[in-house]
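Figure caption, in words: inputs first, then the predicted bound structure.
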Amino acid sequence: MRFAQRLGRITTAASFDMLARGRALEARGRSIVHLGIGEPDFDTPAFIRDAAKRALDEGWTHYGPAPGLPEFRASIAASWRERRAIPCEARHVVVTPGAKPVLFFAMLALLEAGDEVIIPSPAFPNYGSIAQLADARVVPTPLRADRGFDLDLDALRARINARTRVLVLNSPHNPTGAVLPDATLHALRELVLEHDLAVIADDIYGDMVYEGRYTAFASLPGMFERTVTVDGFSKTWAMTGWRLGFGIMEEALARHMAALMNNSNSCTATFVQKAGDAALHGPRDEVVAMIAEFRVRRDLVVEALNAIPGVRCGRPAGAFYVFPRIERPGLTAEQLADRLLDEAGVVTLPGTAFGAEGEGYLRLSYANSVENLREGVRRIGQFLATA
Ligand code: PLP
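Bound structure (pyridoxal-5'-phosphate present):
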């Protein structure tokens, strides 16, 4: 077979590769601490699992409408209106198998070949990969490490030109955990209006904010019409394997996205949507407890990392990642992550897996037990002291 050239423009997430390498070492009997993959280590709450079982028994096993079950779209719209102040109705919501398809469809729908998309760097690697698959040109814009990984607005402004179509935002942020301050969001709003841009706002970590304020970009005046909000159930309800996400966008785009769903997935599994609907209407105590636990772990990891000579780690306000700077002359971030895995038995991700600006950093996920986090950081400290 001969493969299409576009395959050369895709990259796959390093987190899955590192997970596989860690698992392979474990299969050979090595003790491995996993601080790589970004998924809650909690189980999906029982009432959500029960709702899925009930839905299966009730016959929710057939095709549903491409953009999602009407009652579920209405529940999402009501919830996001109330909790995130996004002025949406059911017709603005498209349900997808995970949040990633929304990123995929949004780029396909908004970008012509040669259009430019500005993506903060470091960033979730799939943004750039999908944009390139859509024939767009990726323009990275740096985050300011010295300002808690806030966007550098001057640098961003300098990157906007007549071909710029889309700005990608992600707050709380993967990999740094940073939450964009309201002042930055308001300045971004001005830029979006001035240059007639569309925004893809990845709000998937929007419930995981430990202090300060988190504002959904689509809730700012005039921004709903220009924003595709990407969100889902993977992180908040510990439902990564269920594949349940959604996008919120203006109605015409929602219709195009439904057509893209029709052409790719037909629909999102209907019993999974019923479980998602139950999640929205059910108790939030487990979610609240999980987030409280993440906060405790964040503090523990930040403190333990900062106690290691040569390591500097800020205290991010959101998500479940830390992004420490590690001074290690002679080793790139990738070499360091490789050696930490092979020699110390800790899975981490090199900052460069998220863009060139990640050189000198590692990303650690603290979605792991306190015991494993302590052991993982201990191993990192020991490696840095002796290797
Ligand atoms: N966006 C960001 C920033 C993420 O970190 C992830 C998952 O790691 C996703 C989107 C994908 O979410 P889902 O598993 O719902 O497709």
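The chain has two domains: 5-44+285-386, 62-281.
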